[in-house]
Automatic annotation (TrEMBL):
This is PadR family transcriptional regulator. It holds the Pfam family PadR. Residues 7-78 form the Transcription regulator PadR N-terminal domain. InterPro entries: Tscrpt_reg_PadR_N, WH-like_DNA-bd_sf, WH_DNA-bd_sf. It comes from Kitasatospora herbaricolor.
Length: 182
């Protein structure tokens, strides 16, 4: 997720102080990882420098002055273009898990054990997400569904890979044999 475009989108609905931007962000997007104030103000500073936001007002308070930020026309255009652009699907063609399986086979360790441990961890996380989904609001439900669907796909890959370990091991052994004869 692009933090800059997300903050711009929050400002498009109405001008806000940095504190309010963080609060609204955390409410909608930061349930698992709240945004740090430093991230908010550093991003606002870049957006200001790039002409995508302006300081609409500076208000005196009990502490330091509070700036209220507003989106500019260029900022609205930036958000609109970002929203219209599809995200690139991430195919995970070279995953860490695949690397671990191959390295286990190369080093004589149990690739099946690595897959079993990973399967258990996926199932544990799926149970946790299912509990969260059942007790949360609609936003939690949608976020958990997204994660659960990805975990289900990973589980299918784990099962398929487990069923092909002998074949993969043979290919790796053949590759090592060919390499050692060079």
């Amino acid at each position: 997720m692009s933090l800059a475009q997300t903050l711009l989108g929050l400002l498009e609905s109405q001008p806000r102080h940095g504190y309010d931007i963080k609060r609204v962000y955390d409410e909608h997007f930061g349930r698992d990882r709240a945004l740090h104030y430093g991230q908010v103000y550093a991003t606002l500073s870049r957006l200001l420098k790039n002409g995508l936001v302006v300081v609409e007002a500076v208000e005196a308070g009990e502490g330091p002055e509070r700036k209220r930020y507003a989106i500019t026309g260029a900022g609205v255009t930036d958000v609109a273009e970002w929203l219209a652009r599809p995200e690139s699907p991430e195919p995970y063609l070279q995953s860490t898990l695949y690397t671990k399986v191959v390295l286990a086979l190369l080093t004589g360790r149990s690739a099946a054990e690595i897959l079993d441990v990973q399967r258990s961890e996926h199932l544990r996380l799926m149970r946790e997400l299912t509990r969260r989904k059942l007790t949360g609001d609609l936003a939690d439900e949608l976020v958990c569904d997204h994660a659960l669907f990805h975990l289900e796909a990973d589980l299918r890959w784990l099962e398929l890979t487990a069923s092909r370990l002998d074949q993969l091991g043979s290919q790796i052994t053949k590759s090592q044999t060919t390499e050692s004869h060079r």
